[in-house]
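Is this the right way to post structure tokens for a design question? Let me know if I should format differently. Anyway, here goes:
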């Protein structure tokens, strides 16, 4: 007999596979070079992150992790700006809607992040700047916050 999840779905029917991982969009800008190289290096970094997913064919989904990293130097001048849209196609089947939301909103972005992190690091180094390693991201916590924010918007009386 196949094991069942707490929600009654059959674990044997659940399927997950990475079909493809790729860069969907990429940009590196360094508007204040070469002058920025002559200034003391005291960077201030700002990172923006977003995920989105779309259903493709039968059980295939594209998940896109978008990262925008802006680093400013002295006098608040932009040293560089990196934008990466790291994408993947995932075959996902047999999950109830709540678990599917978790797969697309947390599990898949967690797989994509190391690829995006490497792209950012490579671009920054090739742009002539010190290596930049983005800190790990807890997509599980971010997804939980998103769910909490959405439930708060739907029922404002629960505050």
């Amino acid at each position: 007999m196949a094991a069942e999840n707490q929600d009654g779905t059959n674990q044997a029917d659940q399927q997950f596979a990475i079909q493809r991982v790729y860069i969907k969009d990429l940009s590196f800008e360094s508007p204040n070079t070469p002058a920025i190289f002559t200034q003391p290096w005291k960077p201030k970094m700002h990172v923006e992150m977003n995920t989105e997913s779309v259903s493709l064919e039968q059980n295939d989904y594209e998940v896109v992790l978008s990262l925008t990293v802006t680093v400013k130097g002295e006098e608040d001048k932009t040293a560089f700006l990196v934008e990466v849209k790291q994408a993947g196609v995932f075959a996902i089947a047999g999950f109830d809607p709540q678990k599917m939301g978790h797969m697309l909103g947390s599990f898949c972005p967690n797989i994509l992040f190391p690829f995006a992190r490497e792209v950012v690091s490579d671009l920054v180094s090739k742009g002539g700047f010190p290596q930049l390693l983005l800190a790990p991201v807890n997509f599980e916590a971010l997804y939980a916050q998103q769910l909490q924010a959405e439930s708060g918007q739907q029922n404002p009386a629960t505050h």
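Format looks fine. Someone answered above. Worth noting: The chain has two helices and four strands. Residues 13-150 form a domain with the Bacterial Protein-export protein SecB fold (CATH 3.10.420.10).
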